[in-house]
Amino acid sequence: MDNEQITGVEPSIRVPPRATQAPSRTCLGLQPPADRGIGHRPRPIHRAQCLAVPRPREPIVERKPRVDLLRFGWKLAGVVLGASTTGAGLALMIRARLGAQPWDVLHLALAKLLNVSPGTVIIGMSLLVLLFWWPLRQRPGLGTLAMTFLPGACCDLVLAVVPVPSDLAPRAALLAGGIVVFSVGTALVIKSGLGPGARDGLMTGACARWGLSVRTVRTGLELGVLTLGLILANPVQAVSAGTAGPGTLAIALTLGPLIGVLLKHRFARPQPQVSPS
Q: Percent of the chain having pLDDT more than 90?
């Protein structure tokens, strides 16, 4: 009779045994109603009343604002350092006179046509490349802003300081150093998580959209831009001036794999979301 409640002429309501009983207020740490039914027996707790009671939530651990601000400061410093390093790497590759980076072949051709400095063309091309982010669903950030303006300014500064060596060995050293410096700066900006540069966002967006490797996308972009730069400039004059040469091909083939090694990450293709039927 303990598991029954008798109400007038209505049939008794049986409560399942404790081993198979549905969750109740007692299992949630709540007490049954204080009022008693007929015969001073406790009223049974309805299952709907038990499920309507919100379960206790775990305490939310909030991060200290000071820790988040310090982490953001480190990321911002990495972005500024990476953007400045990228501009320095561009200048070193130009001063090597063995063939500039494929993007710089295009920059130098436009700078000669427009009679402006290479840094100005770098900034303008960065703003133009940002228009191609929309089909790839890329979002700009502070890293994008830094990579738009800092590399051009740092490139003009280093070009004004570093002279052109006459021997082949120092020029080869400048070319190799420029490739490494540029790759390190690009990896710093991408790893900061504050938004890649305009050209790097084009690379990472294509990797994420089609599931390709950084090596494949970067090498394809470098070869395509090199072809466009040689079309705008006279190839014979570009080779004689040191704008295009064997170093350009070396940069196009080594820059993508080196950045991929520094990032150690392959961008996965986003899986389509299946809506529940």
A: 16
Give the residue from 235, 236, 147, 163 showing the smallest Cα distance to 197.
147
Amino acid at 41: R
Structure tokens at 112: 């000669």
Distance of alpha carbon 14 from alpha carbon 273, whole angstroms: 46
R_g of the chain, CA atoms, integer Å:
33
Rounded Cα distance, 158 and 190, in Å: 23
Sign of the dihedral defined by the CA atoms of residues 158, 162, 168, 174, in that order = negative
Q: How many CA atoms lie within 13 A of 148 on its CB side?
A: 16
Over residues 233-248, the pLDDT tens digits come to: 888 777 777 788 888 8
pTM listed for this prediction: 0.62
SS3 135: helix
